[in-house]
Amino acid sequence: MKIGILETGFAPEELRDDFASYPGMLEKLLGDVDPSLEFETWTVLEDVFPDSIRDADGWVIMGSKHGVYENLPWMIRLQDFLRDAVSAGQPVFGICFGHQILATALGGKVIKSDKGWGVGVHQYAVDARNSDWLSDSPAKIRINAFHQDQVVEPPKGATVWASSDFCPYAGLQYGDNAASIQPHPEFMKPYETALLQARYDLIPDDVHEAAMKSLETPITSVDFARSLVKFMTRKRIKSAA
């Protein structure tokens, strides 16, 4: 299966020599689960888009420093692309900004939350009742987060599969072939640590201190990666049947 990665943001410049790009992090996460997966990245942030939704078997939208409410031209074009891919029955999955722009494209609302920064390791309750791809997921997952914006009004018909007190709509699903998550399963501890240090001036001291402390908690991103691979690949099997 070929997964198309839609790149919507870059790591801070001072971290790029030491860490992979966000698409590179995702390839490592998913490729370790299923080495047969193929990947191709389109940097939509720079208006580099696939020629067709059929250029890949499924799509993953990555994170970004941007807010979807900026309504930049590439964001509008991306929303059109996502609606087309979802309508065509392709597997589509959003991460952080990807979670937010997928919700926006399908009729939801995203704002800069008055709850402030969600950073460090966050724990989410998982509701797998309507999501067979989560059948092997634990009841709680712990994943690194880095965001201020949140989905505050899910699109009509969306189901919530992951939630926390801080982020009630942390995981959303739309029918059988589109879903998303607010935190960053591709962020491992070294990168989350470096990013927190690089963005120290943006985050209140008490929030930053708590986030650094939270990094002592083991994350379950590798376990979640198995669920994500199941989500992406099961669609292809169904469509071929």
Automatic annotation (TrEMBL):
Taxonomic source organism: Thalassospira tepidiphila
Keywords, in A-Z order: Ligase
Domain Glutamine amidotransferase stretches: 80-194
Protein's UniProt keywords contain Lipid metabolism: no
GO molecular function, one term: GMP synthase (glutamine-hydrolyzing) activity
Matching CDD domains: GATase1_1
Protein name per its UniProtKB record: GMP synthase (Glutamine-hydrolysing)
EC numbers for this chain: 6.3.5.2
Entry annotated with the keyword Transferase: no
